[in-house]
Amino acid sequence: MRLKTLILVISIVALVIIGAWACYVYFRRSQLREELLRRFSKLRAEYQKKRAQGYDVSEVGRWMEKARDAFKKGDYETVVKSAGKRGV
User: Fold this and answer.
1) Closest CA to 60 of 71, 69, 48, 47
2) Residues 6+ apart with CB under 8 A from 44
3) What ranges do the domains of the chain cover?
4) What average pLDDT is seen over the chain?
5) Interval 5-39: pLDDT, tens
6) C-alpha distances in angstroms, 82 versus 34, 40, 41, 73, 87?
């Protein structure tokens, strides 16, 4: 009887830990997604402003396209690393 109770308690604790971890991962990805959306919005505004002023922004446009594709695939870490390399 004690063994069954111990196994039940350990199983419940394991489920709680796994559930908490899953919630953390989900909310962390949600926060990262929202932060990337804010950064993209700022970048797009700056991109349009500089393009209107006559600057050559073609390289930024290509990078934004690649970053947008990675973002749509849910590869947020790649977007963050790429943005960090470019100072965005």
Assistant:
1) 47
2) 64
3) 2-85
4) 88
5) 999 999 999 999 999 999 999 998 899 889 888 98
6) 17, 13, 16, 15, 9
